[in-house]
Amino acid sequence: xxxxxxxxxxxxxxxxxxxxxxxxxxxxxxxxxxxxxxxxxxxxxxxxxxxxxxxxxxxxxxxxxxxxxxxxxxxxxxxxxxxxxxxxxxxxxxxxxxxxxxxxxxxxxxxxxxxxxxxxxxxxxxxxxxxxxxxxxxxxxxxxxxxxxxxxxxxxxxxxxxxxxxxxxxxxxxxxxxxxxxxxxxxxxxxxxxxxxxxxxxxxxxxxxxxxxxxxxxxxxxxxxxxxxxxxxxxxxxxxxxxxxxxxxxxxxxxxxxxxxxxxxxxxxxxxxxxxxxxxxxxxxxxxxxxxxxxxxxxxxxxxxxxxxxxxxxxxxxxxxxxxxxxxxxxxxxxxxxxxxxxxxxxxxxxxxxxxxxxxxxxxxxxxxxxxxxxxxxxxxxxxxxxxxxxxxxxxxxxxxxxxxxxxxxxxxxxxxxxxxxxxxxxxxxxxxxxxxxxxxxxxxxxxxxxxxxxxxxxxxxxxxxxxxxxxxxxxxxxxxxxxxxxxxxxxxxxxxxxxxxxxxxxxxxxxxxxxxxxxxxxxxxxxxxxxxxxxxxxxxxxxxxxxxxxxxxxxxxxxxxxxxxxxxxxxxxxxxxxxxxxxxxxxxxxxxxxxxxxxxxxxxxxxxxxxxxxxxxxxxxxxxxxxxxxxxxxxxxxxxxxxxxxxxxxxxxxxxxxxxxxxxxxxxxxxxxxxxxxxxxxxxxxxxxxxxxxxxxxxxxxxxxxxxxxxxxxxxxxxxxxxxxxxxxxxxxxxxxxxxxxxxxxxxxxxxxxxxxxxxxxxxxxxxxxxxxxxxxxxxxxxxxxxxxxxxxxxxxxxxxxxxxxxxxxxxxxxxxxxxxxxxxxxxxxxxxxxxxxxxxxxxxxxxxxxxxxxxxxxxxxxxxxxxxxxxxxxxxxxxxxxxxxxxxxxxxxxxxxxxxxxxxxxxxxxxxxxxxxxxxxxxxxxxxxxxxxxxxxxxxxxxxxxxxxxxxxxxxxxxxxxxxxxxxxxxxxxxxxxxxxxxxxxxxxxxxxxxxxxx
Length: 1001
Description:
Radius of gyration: 32 Å
Structural class: mainly beta
Shape: globular
Number of helices: 9
């Protein structure tokens, strides 16, 4: 007996239960809704059931094929979830898995899917800090688990593990039908060394049997600044404050109607008030008035009993706010499935992505308004020959373009060997290539001037091959249900790049298209190559007794070429138990719960997110000048980076460590799933503890070793948290409905260990004895590091001085422990927090302390959806609370410079203007970064049309507003910044207006 089980929309139901009535014999439907059942009596009756749907009985009556269509019993079901190497009914989940509904995101234009996940799943933090065209996102699941290894979750598309989430441009968001987020170790440990940071599983669209559908989706988006630019509009005020700051710093005032030391003429204040006419609005020359973006998708799908296919083509353009700052992509996605036999199906898919990026960002829209754009002869006005900030000159002469190509192909077969056993094998291949063309002209760029023109051609190429074969077995024995999966995976990855740099161009007419115009003696050729392999075996066992008690056990073994010969293999087990308490008679008698399920899981996963060859001795090259010529030296070690101000110190790495191994993350999770009021209210609670040990990091070495750093396994980080998701159907009538989803996530991370203080070169806080190391780059504004990793503290906390307002009198400054210019009225009043260093009452380096935490206390979101007949509307609010932000623009910008301290304005909020001030990093610059954003507001109307009378069966018109308004006390443009919590200005977040049209034929 065979057949297929579907819902009323024609979608196949995965994991539907089919039983012979009156017996314990049964099976479940596969990924396509198909089932096969042996020894069915000719006059028997089949029972079809699915959680959340109405069960039905169908008489066999001698038939060999029995199909079933099940209808929803309630709304908000989402009962089937895709997990690693299989799928289960949501009611049978033992791990923590969140499902994101793609239909909630379909009206929002996006370059990649990850940015749309912001606020859509508990425990998932998405930061969209960059507004550049084509920019990706930062994605974290349950906090940061690594210091130098990858912190991004693994993203899997249709069974293909593509790598770190954050920039999945190759997949058109309109092709996605489901997204599952595997959060705890029970769910993610099946991916072993790649699952420590969680897993995002994406499933793309398949055709429905018996239908042929053609659809067109068109979106047009207009962007604008969500707030005004903070620029000098009054040259007189600008000049007066500039003169004041220079005089207070002991310098000659600039705006006095004379040439400065560089020969640039600056008018006097009187000239600016009377005869000076130049007041250039650089922002109007640099920014577009209303950038326009386009997103067009055309798809065709069809299916019959044997063959189905889905073909979609997409073209997307994204104009940035800067003129000529653009991104575009185009491509297609083809999925084909064919049943060769009733029990044997083959599938193939192919994705092509072509991208183009013209980078013209970062132009100096803040340029001095007294400067004209052109000289009288029509040439660009430059203050000096070393004026490298003229935005129009740079835009018209600099070149920075990148072309990208990705091809993703998969082939698979699925063999239903017997009704209880299904064998799946899949081959995946991804090829990616990008070419970057740059030219920096001699006259308008510093690098171009120093090198008499510079051209660069950079090529990168990556290939990824994954082969996976696994078998799924399911059998029912009375009240017992057993499911098992065993499989094997092989992954091969190769990366190579090459760069050609030419300097000293004798003719710039063709730029880098004529690299031969550069001086041969100054050409630079470089290239890189890396290869890695991963071999894995995995297994999972699911057991259910009486549909009440569930057990899941998984195991994966990974062997990686990235690690030393002593630690090639890692082993990652996990286990989970679950109790469906609502199936107990004493719970049913309460008449309260439609669902009450308890989950408990524990497991271990790993992280191999470092570059290959870190366990081997590395060689490098360097150039040096000797006797009038440049020579090349090669030997052990290589330059892995720079440190200090302007990168003055080189960091030398390359010492081998054959004992290097995986990071290991152990996590337990306790969850409760509840449903009330005929499942119209659903609540999911999770509490977890996640500890990562053997951190992959670079330890500082003694100078006598000849190296600066070496990769080691050292340290431990802990993340603890609590998550709540509440889904509710407030109203469900024929003509109107109201649904809502509230999500709350709280995560606390802490650095537990950083290894030996001597071997790791840890610093020590003089007041508390806290051990720490600095992270990030040296801030030139404060001439110090701003973030640290400290034992017992969250990751990336801010470390600096405390500030108690502004000094009002010289005695006040001296009494505060300050001296010289730092003690003068109008200066920052730094606090003396420690006197144990023998400098009683004096403010010095030992008075530094932790002054802020960039990690949020919690995040929350609320989505409300309303429908009245054919009209629908939704609003999505997203919030981040309790995070601190380092605002480098707290003082000195046009909106606050005029509020500075003066003897006539003895404010305690802003210091005086003083050029040359040696500003110390303090909590004066730390602000509350909490915000609530009206992230999306959508209104739409759907026309259902009789297909036989008009050209289309359905038309939908809608309008979406993104980033409509942000409620915050933060003083900058926008508080959403990177995970280090540093805000450096930029421009306001873009508010986007999208008009969309969907047509289904």
